[in-house]
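#struct-queue
[09:14] JT: dropping the first one here, sequence first, then the structure tokens:
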Amino acid sequence: MKYLIVGLGNPGLDYENTRHNIGFMVLDSLAKESNAVFKDTRYAWRTEIKHKGRTLVLIKPSTFMNRSGNAVRYWLNKEKLDFDRLFVIFDDVALDFGRLRIRAKGGNAGHNGIGNIFDVLGTNQIPRMRIGIGQDFPRGRQIDYVLGKMTEGEKAEFNLQIDKYIDAIKSFSTIGLERTMNYFNK
């Protein structure tokens, strides 16, 4: 069985270690754990890992956050996968830093990356994991905050939580979305 795991973020050094790139950071950690190396391919950096007889195709779109849908559509088609084998990881200002929430469907909550995926795929029924980055910013400064570098405290919290994020991805591929949501959405 094969799954497409998508971490959202923006390409380039200017965006490394920013809150908006938390999806990239999770996939980098998962790949590192398996000694997998991302390669620059069409629309994304791509690698594969194996977990309990499953193949997890990891992609980090190179199309910039707001155009992530093109990369997701291309790789779903290339890998011949349905939406239920897709899992998207991205940041969410509505959740406290480090907290995760897994959903099967719903709105984009103002997130342009997942919104573009919905638009391109024509559905909002996309399994996803939102990772909280908090909302410690003054009114009107959300973009600066989201695209800002993580603080040392946030990096430490991310490192404390990374195993949980990776476990949730692996759980999705082995026990399915419903059971994964029941376990991790506590």
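[09:21] JT: and here's the second one, same format:
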Amino acid sequence: MFFTNSVKIGKEVIEDLFFFPESQMLDCNQYLINNRENDEIILFDAGNGKSLKALFEGMNNIGLDYKKITKVYITHEHVDHVLGLYELLDVMKNNPPEIFAYEKTAKILQEGNESEIIPRDLGISSSMLGIEIRPIKVVNIKENDQFRLNSEFTFKIFYTPGHSLGSIIYYEINKKILIPGDLVFAGGSFGRYDFPGGSLTKLQDSIEFTNKLDVEYLLPGHMNISDNGNEQIEYSNKMVHSIRDYF
């Protein structure tokens, strides 16, 4: 297995919710919930695989055991968010976590469709990264599904295409937490729409919908997190709609 030697430094956003920032090599931010009630850890997005050891070491530094990861929730099908699944399943082969993804992403992962996972425009392949993409078992989740992790965290799923065919957001109803993958970022940025399956119009519609949610904690797939979520999403909404001026 091919790992980076760096360590992901974990930060507690609120009690039992942790942020691990992306590494500098086609990776993504990752989020963990330490579910004390069930003695398990829930992971959002798997990163690029090369950074898995860095995540494990970062978890260990704050007293979290990667062997307690029982569920992985994926925001969308792109390489920097899913490639770590294959490494994680290999490392935890004796007690593998369940993988959850929206139906379009789930189908891509179930089929092991590399062309959908790694856009050709990137000019790379899974073999270059030392990881084999293969069909894996995935639990199919649907729009408006809700899952209750414990008495503290309940997430609702919304389908938000535009960046990719399978993009969804995870919204925690009570604590007003949003895990949007690559839909919106802090500082007014938003996801690319020029990859296969991307659409500017759909991205604009998805961000406009997301802008109506009550969000305090914005936990995006890249760059910084924010505890002023609505302001950041509104800024992204204005920016993405301004693109219409150029057509």
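[09:30] RK: nice, looked through the second one.
[09:31] RK: The chain is about 25% helix and 20% strand.
[09:31] JT: good to know. The first helix runs from residue 52 to 61.
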